[in-house]
Amino acid sequence: MKTLTRILGLSFLLLLMCGGVQAAGDATHLEHAGVNTRDIAALQRGAKWYVNYCFSCHSAKYMRYNRLSEDLGLSEELVMENLVFSDAKIGDTMDIAMRPEQATLWLGKEPPDLSLIARSRGVDWLFTYLKSFYQDETGNWNNLSLPNASMPHVLWELQGIQKPVYARHGDVEVVDHLTLAVEGLQTPEEYEETVRDLVTFLDYVSEPAKLKRKNIGIWVMLFLTVFAALAFALKAEYWRDVH
Question: How far apart are alpha carbons 72 and 65 in whole angstroms?
């Protein structure tokens, strides 16, 4: 009993420590993404934004084009015509043409594969990150969620250019908020919806089986409910004779 108590106490302490580390690492307020991977139209739009703005540098090498066709309700012809801009075949994975050594030479480092980015970072972080780019006084891109990020703002023509508004906290000057200095092709509301669609697609890519898993889960819960009702009725029938 004493050993069990010690183990439970140690586990509780570790949970508290992990929670403290997570809270300490969350320096930026995260906006709620509100993604819905069951929204097929949002997934289709997100796939469009991804291949047009992200896919030149970021692969999704654990996803296959034919799986997109199956899950997103698109024919293989539509996928090949609108989402494939290389000599890839419908059964190939979503890999980019740029090789790692070329990326290192041209960009300084290889851009990460985004197959699992939604699972590692979280959809709220991605949503906030893609809305938090701004241009500093030197004309360089920076980001509130990931300061000194090496990635430029590839969606700037859609969002426009945000500029920082500073506030002084004691002797330190920090970015208080961002303001839209140059309008983009989309309104702020339209851009937010674009980012939500893109994050929805990345959330789907991180776990394609989620669509089927959730649908199957609904039927499993219905089956268990009906089975429990029948089992309870059968139990009542048996115990009626016992009493």
Answer: 10
